[in-house]
Design brief:
mainly beta, 4-stranded antiparallel sheet, 11 strands
């Protein structure tokens, strides 16, 4: 599977100044590119959510469900390409102390979703697994939500997602997205 950031790096969803999170839109291509997969549909299946080392909790993890992007039939377009969205966020007010009230979610939180991309012959959906064909690739999607310290004693919130070797990071210092690398094969 070949991947790169769509349009050099664009968020997959809008996140305002009250949102800690990141998102990215990936362009994926089924290989080999010399073979056309246009008549083939694919589907992403969840293989589980796992807390990673260094995480004190996983309460922010929404789990990989149809609402978060899996189990939907995806048409492969000319050039063997299709798009995948990776996104996760939480309201900033739930991860910081406000007026002496401890946060609902403690940081750092690190987890990953094990994902399996398969050929699919049905209409998609959680109940269509009997219409899945060959496994194309298995991939982990990593999430990190953390509080980092500055030299002046202040802190900021940082979140990142990594999938197919592409990553996005966003923090509460400047609310900008940083995408990298531009292309990963």
């Amino acid at each position: 599977m070949w991947s790169k950031h769509a349009q050099g790096g664009v968020p997959a969803s809008f996140q305002d100044e009250l949102t800690m999170g990141a998102s990215m839109l990936l362009e994926l291509r089924v290989q080999p590119l010399k073979v056309s997969f246009v008549e083939i549909d694919v589907i992403e299946r969840d293989l589980g959510s796992f807390k990673d080392q260094g995480s004190i909790s996983e309460s922010i993890d929404p789990r990989h469900t149809p609402a978060t992007g899996c189990d939907a039939r995806i048409d492969v377009l000319p050039g063997n390409k299709f798009w995948d969205r990776a996104t996760s966020s939480v309201d900033v007010r739930f991860v910081i102390e406000i007026n002496g009230v401890p946060p609902l979610h403690k940081l750092p939180q690190k987890w990953h979703w094990a994902c399996q991309w398969r050929v699919h012959y049905g209409g998609g959906g959680l109940d269509s697994k009997n219409k899945d064909g060959a496994v194309i690739v298995e991939e982990n999607q990593y999430f990190v939500f953390e509080k980092l310290a500055l030299a002046n004693g202040h802190s900021y919130l940082n979140s990142s997602i990594n999938k197919f070797g592409c990553f996005v990071t966003r923090n509460t210092l400047n609310l900008r997205y940083f995408f990298g690398p531009e292309e990963k094969k």
